Here is the input.
Amino acid sequence: MTKDPKAKPTVASFADHEVITPPNALKRAVSHAVTDDDPVARAEAALAQLSSEFSGWMDADFERLDKARQQVRQSGMTKDCGEELFRAAHDIKSQAPTFGFSLVAAAADSLCRLIEHASDPRRIPFDLIDQHVDAVRAIMREQGRPGAEAIAEELTQRLREVSRFFLRRGDKDPDGIEIGPPIVPEK
Here is the structure.
């Protein structure tokens, strides 16, 4: 871009100071095209277009969670196995509402909190891990059926109660730990 030799700075004088404004050479480079482009509408349209994939993505996330559970059952709650189980549950918890499976998020959240707040995750009973993972699968499968929301809420509440009971038996005081309600927004 070449400089315009005719462009000169403007000077505004005030009682106690002057403001010098240099010429803005970029004004000529910027296009002032008027468009009807709405980025929010574009994003919503893209999301709608992808929505047919959401169920498959949730199934893949569940398979990852189930594989992590099997690895914990086979190798014990090692650091790597525990981290993978936590990450798989956390991904489901955070993605489920976006993918239209909001009821699943609370059960996955309960598993995340159980792993995160256990004083020794190796002591978490396999049955309690199984109950969480099986609840995620059942809620995914039954979502959309009549009465599914009430059943999912009760199931998740029971998982939280059992998790709280387990944590109380350990050396941590779960009263200071927020096990419920879920951290995902309500609809």
Observations:
- Helices lie at 39-50, 54-75, 79-95, 102-117, 126-142, 148-169.
